[in-house]
Every structure is written in structure tokens, then in C-alpha cells.
Amino acid sequence: MIYTIQQWYTPAEVAVHNTATDCWVSLNGKVRNLTPWLEQQFKLCRCIKSCSCPINNWYCRDECVEYCPCFKRGFLYCDAKRLAMTILAYAGKDVSHWFKGDEWVKYTHPIVGSTVPFHQYGHGNREPVVPSTKWRPICKCGPWWLDESNVVGKVTAKTRPIRITNTLIGTSTTLEVCSEETLYQIMMRYLPHNSHMLSYTWRYLDKPLKYDLTLEENGVPDEREIFNVLALPENLHIPDLLLYYNDDLTEDPPKECYCEHQDCVTGHPEDCHNVHIEDS
């Protein structure tokens, strides 16, 4: 079996990354890991910090409160900290409503009457229209919302439940998957429940399933909208994929072998491992 890296994420999977040391947000369909960016922004604050825990750094424990002199004086602009604190408050959430495309949402400035970015959630990387001694540039680096290096995947437009039953031992598992995922990507989600999945034939209503197609393309419908119209519970019926054991003697490659395509090095895990090292 060739293990692939996860490309699609559900909102629930993004929501669990909601701490300073593990901060993800979703923006315009992309999932971004802002943990390195957050660390860099907090380092730009050169105030001497006092903290209630023994370790005086920006990523103290959750119950710890970090005190910054510039915050005590009422200046919430301390270098890049204002925007960083707002990002941390929205960790694990969707921030697409801050932007219109790749630019911040704009509004008419009440003083100068011009159209300017609406920075309610922290200032951006441009100087404000009205000069202010409180404004400081965030950093010389590019905007985080245009940095493709922090993109870890895509957020799904729709999730759906699916039940997978192993007919050999009679166990059944219900997963929440992304509607855009192929069957092979769903197999990666099911991997913790069965580490030898290619030794099974996947079928639905006695029809074989194709690994490179989505559930909808494989003829596995999502009937929850029909249930809602009929005032029935959504979980009244969850499609069930049946796994039939092939009784083979094949072995899976080590799990550190990752490849983008299922059949690129099938049967040659050592080649897959070498390619993975060279690419990285």
C-alpha cells in the first residue's frame, strides 16, 4: 500500500488546531498553518515580559497570562502583536469574511472619505490613511494571507458520513469524510482501523468501487438533503461500504513511505522512500 499525504480537511479537523503552538486557520478554501508566523510576530515585541509561570516566553501554558508593558499602557499596537493576538483568537476558525479575494474587505473612511482596508481585526502591512504615531510596520516579509508556504491543504466545501464494514471480522466504523476525497484518500482515513486495506475488495451494493473516484462518482449518494426535505433525521441511513478479504499474502511498505499517487511505485516501497527523501 502506498501512503498518501492528506489534502482535504474537515472544519472539525481544523478546529482542533487552536493553540499558540498549533494554530491553523481556513481562508478562501485553503488551510494555513500560522504557527511559525505567530512565533515570529510575537518575537517582534521587544518589551520585557512578566509572566505568572516559571518559563517567561510567549507560548506559556494555557492557564498562564502574559503581561506586556505596552499592553498595560494601553498601546495595543506593540509591533505585530495586535494582529497576532487576533489571529490567535481565531485559531481553528474560518477567517474568509475578513477578505474579499486576496485583499482585505474595504470601507469608506469617515475622515478622509476614501476607500481603505477594513482592519477591524488588526492592522495590515500598509501604512494607515491617517498618520498615527501608534502605527508600526508588521514586518518586511510578505502578507501571511498570500504566503503559499503556510498552506497545508484545502478545507472541504461539504462533509458527509460514511460507514465501512469489514465482513471478515464484522466490525463497522463510521467516518466523517470530505466530499471531494477519492476512495483511496478515504482509505487513508480508515488506515488506523485496518493497516492492510489493499488486501480487501471494496464494494457498495455488490458493485466494485474505483479507488481514483469520489464516493459520488462511484455511485454512493449522499441522501441527507432528501431526508431534510422529508423532515427525517440525517443519520436515518448512512451508506455502508463492505470490505471483502482477498486472502492474499502481500505485505505493506513501511508507513514512512509517502507518495502523491497510488500506483507510482506500487511494489517498490524502497523507490518510493528514496524519491520522498530527494524531494524533501
UniProtKB/TrEMBL annotation:
SUPFAM superfamilies named in the record: Cytochrome b5-like heme/steroid binding domain (SSF55856)
A GO molecular function held by the record: metal ion binding
Protein name, UniProt field: Cytochrome b5 heme-binding domain-containing protein
Keywords: Heme, Iron, Metal-binding
Signal peptide: none
Similarity comment text for this entry: Belongs to the cytochrome b5 family.
Xref: InterPro entries: Cyt_B5-like_heme/steroid_sf, Cytochrome_b5_domain
Keyword Repressor on entry: no
Transmembrane segments: none
